[in-house]
């Protein structure tokens, strides 16, 4: 038994070693990636119930030369850990606003559309987020009314006072605010009333089994009803099928995002597939 214990420990040590090697490698690559422009912003359309485009969400992609595309869920937590998220967040803000301003100048982006940009709770708490947004707007010339910032419930949790202050400042710029992944965090219904929020995004985990799971159905119905009652906009994420779409529409939802309407794609493909001059 003693022998086995030692072997197990040796294996464990080895595993931990290769894990931390991989992690260290990833950290190094992230710094390089920012310098070498390996990050790219993808765009996923958002739609109204007529199926018309009403905006898009900017989604970050890392095209690692050896490994190919690495999903944001793998590298964003590490970027947060090593503090690179602030610079990465600035990159997303600058790049995205510049791109959308370009589409607007070409007549491809409409006045009443919005581009949604994700902001990490870390950015929300510790970056000079207001300055970063102001800089991106000034640099691109994009109208603030075309920009929406997506935050998660986590961003509100640590320091509600400070969160409220930042949110009010962002709103004063003319930028709108959405709560992302709504329903997955520990949110109090109180903040929906008190915080300057424009929109709830119903998390895709509730939408996925909407048709078959009674509980998911009930949650989605309640969130939509609550949003409508509080005069908040509501958007359903992860709409993958026509059935999802039709059901959500019946439930009183009126804006949507998901594979049924379109997958995230690079700027060129997005313009080709979803933007047409003068429509
Ligand atoms: P999120 O903000 O909830 O973004 C939605 C995710 O759902 C995206 O994954 C999108 O590709 C995916 N998605 C869209 N429609 C569907 C659908 O119909 N079905 C399914 N199954 N999935 C769908 P993605 O691009 O891998 O991003 C994952 C997460 O990474 C995002 O979740 C967000 O939390 C984070 N992220 C992405 N870009 C950024 C960024 O620029 N900054 C920050 N801080 N986080 C980002
Ligand atoms: Ca989001
Ligand atoms: Ca989401
Ligand atoms: Ca999510």
TrEMBL record:
Residues covered by the EAL domain: 23-278
Record-given protein name: PAS domain S-box/diguanylate cyclase (GGDEF) domain
Residues represented out of the complete protein: 519 to 797 of 799
């Amino acid at each position: 038994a003693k022998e086995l214990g030692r072997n197990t420990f040796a294996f464990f040590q080895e595993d931990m070693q290769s894990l931390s090697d991989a992690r260290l490698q990833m950290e190094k690559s992230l710094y390089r990636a920012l310098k070498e422009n390996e990050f790219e912003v993808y765009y996923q359309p958002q739609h109204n119930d007529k199926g018309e485009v009403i905006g898009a969400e900017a989604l970050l992609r890392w095209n690692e030369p050896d490994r190919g595309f690495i999903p944001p869920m793998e590298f964003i937590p590490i970027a947060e850990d090593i503090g690179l998220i602030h610079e990465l967040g600035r990159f997303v803000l600058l790049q995205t606003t510049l791109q959308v301003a370009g589409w607007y100048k070409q007549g491809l982006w409409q006045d009443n559309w919005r581009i949604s940009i994700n902001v990490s709770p870390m950015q929300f708490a510790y970056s000079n987020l207001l300055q970063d947004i102001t800089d991106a707007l000034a640099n691109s010339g994009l109208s603030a009314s075309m920009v929406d910032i997506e935050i998660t419930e986590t961003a509100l949790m640590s320091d509600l006072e400070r969160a409220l202050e930042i949110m009010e400042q962002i709103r004063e710029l003319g930028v709108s605010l959405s709560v992302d992944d709504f329903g997955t965090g520990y949110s109090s219904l109180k903040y929906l009333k008190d915080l300057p929020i424009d929109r709830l995004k119903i998390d895709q985990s509730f939408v996925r089994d909407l048709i078959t799971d009674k509980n998911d159905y009930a949650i989605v119905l309640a969130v939509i009803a609550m949003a409508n009652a509080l005069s908040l906009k509501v958007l359903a994420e992860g709409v993958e099928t026509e059935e999802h779409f039709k059901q959500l529409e019946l439930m009183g939802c009126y804006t949507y995002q998901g594979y049924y309407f379109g997958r995230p794609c690079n700027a060129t493909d997005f313009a080709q597939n979803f933007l047409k001059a003068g429509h």
